[in-house]
Amino acid sequence: MGFTEFVVMIATIMSLNPLAMDMMLPALPNIGSAFHIDVANHLQMVLSAFLIGFGVGQFVIGPLSDSFGRRPVLLGGMIVYCVASLLAIAAPSFETLLLARALEGLGTSATRVIATSVVRDCYAGRRMASVVSLAMMVFIAVPVVAPSFGQAVMLLTQWRGIFVVLMLYGMLALLWTSLRLPETLPASERKAFTINEVLDAFRRTVTNRQTLGYALAAGGVMGSLFGYVFSAQQIFTGVYKLGHYFPLAFAAIAAAIAVSGFLNARLVGRLGMRVISHGALVGALAVAAITFLAARFQVLPFQILPLPLFMVLSALMMFAFGLTFANFTALAMEPQGDNAGTASSLYGSVTTLVGIGAGTIIGQAFDGTLVPFATGFLLGALAALALVIVTEKGRLFQPHHRPIA
Known about the structure:
- The protein contains 14 helices and no strands.
- It has helices spanning 3-22, 28-34, 45-68, 70-89, 94-122, 125-156, 160-180, 195-206, 209-239, 246-271, 273-297, 307-333, 340-364, 371-391.
- Helix 3 runs antiparallel to helix 13 (340-364) and helix 10 (246-271) packs across helix 12 (307-333).
- The mean pLDDT is 85.
């Protein structure tokens, strides 16, 4: 397959996850009405259950793919995703819906882990970072349109129609992958699926300073992003009273991540992963500090941050995080060429579970103001920067590779 088709396919596979996550946002009030959920914060469980399945599933997906190959595990995960979407369509209770969401997350854990493993199987260094950025640009563009797409589906049908769309998308991705994606892990490089082999692979991953350090730092970034996703519907509809215009505001902010992915793919070959990601993280911390001060101490002469200013600050943080996350992924995976599946599995689990924990705390702390959201962004950026400083032994902005011609 050509390079363009490869990048688009990887992005399509990875997009199963954010599409299933963000299309649900406009439907949360309707789901609450359907199942008589009176506490708005409880509806965030529709998102949390999905992410828990996603995070837990990644622990086993990597070792399985290192032993049995990328294709069978990937296709199996996509089948689970499609079956779970069917279960959600027919869910008679809120508990059944949460089970279906957890299974959807479990299915997409295969798509995320193995997509990253396939990229690492084929590329390394700055070239890998460039491929990851191009895939992430498409991958992150999905949240830009997903809420609006979900809102459009809601105009035509009820909230269960969203799961019909998710199932159809999953089936198309499954068909394309089964026909076109080759096996990228030769049989000669596979490992026995035994307790000792799996534990040894995990040990080699967690004892690598660069892999573990950047995985934890990416978790701090992910926590801020999840906090934003969990709180977005309540902020835009509750604080700013946007109603049905919420998806447009969400899309405008999320677009900044897609733009940063495009820029990173163009610049990372010349500047390097560390220079770009470290600079972006420092910038994110500065913007988060401004947002926190404005929200907490009313530094500005407004009772609440004006919507345009809030959107600009949020977009700047998303832009910085977009430059950060793709490079952190490449940096974490770089030393794991002979252990890509397990390393990708552990990396995904760490970033997702840390992100879920932090994002859930931020989302559940929502009190009708911007303070919990702004505090979460600031703490996430601070934690990520501290972890990077420790990982790099205090030496930031130091390129480790020659520029790509």
